[in-house]
Write a structure and sequence with these properties.
transmembrane helix; cell membrane; Sugar ABC transporter permease; transmembrane
């Protein structure tokens, strides 16, 4: 009887292992939000860029075809008359010769910045201190620099006092002749902007893998050979950028000569001349045309530089 009432227990089959779950396809709303999110972050910078850069440029181009004096609410369309006047008056472009002084100064500051960046990229004493000393002038306001060096170069000023302590007597007016004035102002630009190029070069040098320096030292390479075969090729893109910034900056120098001399003694630059046309002679239309011409010149010079020295991928390994 027990045999008839006892039920045979059936073995329970093991549960099948659960396979990987397929992710549910993203909904249309999710895909739309993912595409929209980057643009939401770009709204503020794009609005600022359009408001304070492209809108003023568009207004400047529009004003360049008028005879607006900057005050009157009435604008008279004059076509290309302002551009014709610019191209037929050679004295308006003679001020570009002053940019040659700043172009030479740019070459000096690039060489100096590259030298200091190379030296301070190695393990030297007081490296952080010298980095701060070199970069500090770039942090000072340009107007303050202009006033400081105005007293530095004046007759009997700081420079004459220092030369007197060294036994050098001079009654030279440093800002009295076109050559000495432009040379002095270009020297001020070297002092101010060397720190910017120094930081760019130092960052590029430090991005080079340290294993390359170690391998070069094992092979007996000197500092010069390390610079020639490792550092120089590695910083080529940054060096090209520094040249572009230096040339465009040389063509558009403004604050230092404007503060120190006001464009007198043959130190007037194209930008100072443009500002005088707009605010001293009330020829805003002509000044706008000059600004457009300067913009085109800078873009053309930049394009030529990029064609001569194109960006190339640097592979040192």
């Amino acid at each position: 009887m027990a045999d008839t009432t006892r039920k045979a227990a059936r073995p329970v089959p093991p549960a099948a292992p659960a396979g990987p779950k397929r992710a549910a396809p993203a909904s249309r709303r999710t895909r739309f939000s993912r595409r929209l999110t980057p643009w939401l972050f770009l709204i503020a910078p794009l609005a600022l860029l359009l408001t304070f850069t492209y809108a003023p440029i568009a207004n400047m181009v529009a004003y360049s075809f008028t005879d607006w004096d900057g005050v009157s609410p009435e604008l008279t369309y004059t076509g290309t008359e302002n551009y014709t006047e610019l191209l037929t008056r050679s004295e308006l472009f003679e001020v570009f010769f002053v940019s040659g002084y700043y172009l030479a100064a740019s070459a000096v500051q690039i060489v100096a910045a590259l030298y200091f960046a190379t030296i301070l990229s190695f393990n030297v004493r007081f490296r952080s201190f010298f980095k701060g000393v070199l970069f500090f002038p770039y942090l000072i306001n340009g107007v303050a620099i202009g006033f400081v060096f105005l007293y530095f170069f004046q007759d009997g000023g700081t420079l004459d006092s220092v030369l007197g302590l060294l036994g050098v007597e001079t009654d030279h007016a440093w800002l009295g002749t076109p050559f000495s004035a432009n040379t002095s102002l270009a020297g001020v630009s070297v002092w101010r902007y060397t720190g910017l190029n120094f930081v760019l070069f130092l960052g590029a040098i430090q991005s080079i893998p340290g294993e390359l320096y170690e391998a070069a030292e094992i092979d007996g390479a000197s500092r010069w050979h390390q610079f020639r075969h490792i550092i120089a090729p590695g910083i080529k893109p940054v060096l090209s950028l520094s040249v572009i910034l230096s040339v465009s900056g040389s063509l558009s120098v403004f604050e230092i000569p404007y503060i120190m001399t006001g464009g007198a003694t043959g130190t007037e630059t194209f930008v100072i001349q443009t500002v005088k046309l707009a605010f001293q002679f009330n020829k805003t239309g002509l000044a706008s045309a000059a600004a457009v011409v300067l913009l085109l010149i800078v873009l053309a010079v930049t394009w030529v530089q990029r064609r001569i020295v194109p960006d190339e991928k640097v592979d040192l390994v």
